[in-house]
Each structure stands twice: as C-alpha cells, then as structure tokens.
Design goal:
The chain is α+β, with helices and mostly antiparallel strands and 262 residues long. It is built from eleven helices and five strands, in the order ααααββαβαααααββα. The protein is globular. It starts with a helix and ends with a helix.
C-alpha cells in the first residue's frame, strides 16, 4: 500500500513540477486577467507528500531534464542530417556567400552587439578569403536582446540591407563600428552603401523583418544555443571568438570525413 502511495505521489509531483517549469520557462510571462487559485487542502496534501518523499522532487527534475536533453539531441541531429542531405533547406532565405556548391556549409549564429562576435567576424573574413571556393558561409541572426539592447535593431537594419543585395557590406560595417551602434549609424551605413532610404526604413520596420529574425531565433533555441557566436560546419560545432587555426582544424576534420565517405 505504501509503495502504491509513493508511486502516485511521484507521478503527482512530477506532473506539478513539469507544469510549473513549462509555465515559467518563457522569456516573457503570459498576460492573463485570471488569477490562479490553489485549493488549500490540495496545497496541504502536496506539502505532506513533499515532506514524506523529498527525493521525488530530485527524481522528477532529473526525469524532466533527461526528456529535454533527449528532445534537444533529436533536434540537433535532425538539423545536422539536413545540412548534409539538403543544405538549401538550411540556408533558406538567409544571406549566404562563398562556394555555390554548398558542399561544405558553415552556419554562423551571431549578434551584432556581441564583442566576441566582432572578434570572430575578423577571423571568419580571413577564413573565407582562403576558402571561399570550398565553403559556403550562412549567417543566422541570434540577437541576445536581454543583454544587448541594440542587437535587434542592428539585425533588422542588416535584414533591410539584404533586401537590396547589400547584407555582407552592411554586416561588415556594423561589426567594424560596433561601439557606435544606434539609429544614426544604421542610416549612415545605408547612405554609404547607396541604399534606397525609403525602402530601407520600410523594410527594417516591417513585420517581414521581425518574422525573419524570429525564425532564426527559434532555430537557435531549438538547437539549444544559448550564446554567440556559435558555428556549425557540416556536422562539427564550435563557439566563441575562435582563432583561425581552430577553424582550419575543423575544416580539415570535415574534409577528412567527406573523403572517407567518397
């Protein structure tokens, strides 16, 4: 009888914890006019179960974490498999440069206000200059808005420049003038690149810009990416302000792997 009560208690606590975590894991709290009321008797029973079996809390959290880890691994594997079998689907409408063959694809998740992304940008430029005939570079937006207040606006501005075929020039200007991010800089760069300013302003403020960025953000979150810069080259992942030598090693690994398959 005690064992049955314990099993039911564990299930009960697990359910309560999973619901609680789900309700508090969003970046922005959901707005509601309704106030959740807890039955005092139910609350008393839950506390009694917790006091009697505190270990079920740890077990439930561990089970939930394992479930989340499993889902994350599945999402990552599906993404990596698609990079190999259908790179065009991964690239989508994202800006891409380099090799047109898309045999080796380097996906970069980046934030225009992140200092490490600016450092990595210099390395990527060197890397792509040496391997632009072998590697396809794809840029995905991942503005960390909670710590970088200008990241989203900068991303929207670069997306608007992309609509006029000047993403890479605009991206480079943002990273090289990162300490000046703001409205004045966004317009100044647009003028320097001879963009149509009316179209530029419409595009960066459009729902399409927000939707495009949100798509990249959701992809990054589904892959469990929590910081920038983050890179995926075919099946190899690496992050941070990487050195050129490290990127060369990753490329060599990818090339060796493809050589073994061919």
């Amino acid at each position: 009888m005690k064992q049955q009560v314990y099993r039911w208690s564990r299930l009960w606590i697990s359910t309560v914890l999973m619901i609680t975590i789900a309700l508090t894991s969003c970046s922005q709290p959901a707005q509601s006019d309704q106030t959740v009321k807890v039955n005092p008797e139910l609350e008393k029973q839950i506390l009694q179960v917790i006091r009697a079996h505190p270990e079920v809390i740890l077990e439930s959290v561990q089970a939930y974490q394992q479930q989340q880890d499993g889902q994350l691994q599945q999402a990552r594997q599906a993404f990596l498999d698609q990079m190999k079998t259908n790179p065009k689907a991964i690239i989508g409408s994202s800006p891409a440069t380099g090799a047109s063959t898309q045999d080796i694809v380097l996906v970069e998740f980046s934030d225009f206000q992140c200092p490490f992304c600016a450092r990595a940008h210099q390395t990527i430029q060197q890397f792509m200059k040496a391997h632009q005939d072998q590697v396809t570079l794809v840029y995905k937006h991942f503005p960390l808005t909670q710590i970088h207040p200008q990241a989203l606006n900068a991303a929207k501005a670069s997306w608007a420049a992309q609509q006029q075929g000047k993403f890479w020039e605009y991206q480079n200007a943002l990273f090289t003038q990162q300490d000046q991010l703001g409205e004045e800089l966004y317009v100044a760069i647009a003028k320097q690149l001879n963009l149509n300013l009316d179209q530029f302003n419409r595009d960066r403020q459009s729902p399409q810009a927000q939707a495009a960025l949100q798509k990249d953000i959701q992809l990054a979150e589904s892959l469990g990416i929590s910081g920038t810069p983050f890179f995926i080259m075919n099946g190899e992942t690496f992050s941070g302000a990487v050195e050129l030598s490290e990127m060369e090693k990753v490329l060599a690994t990818v090339q060796a792997s493809k050589g073994q398959k061919n």
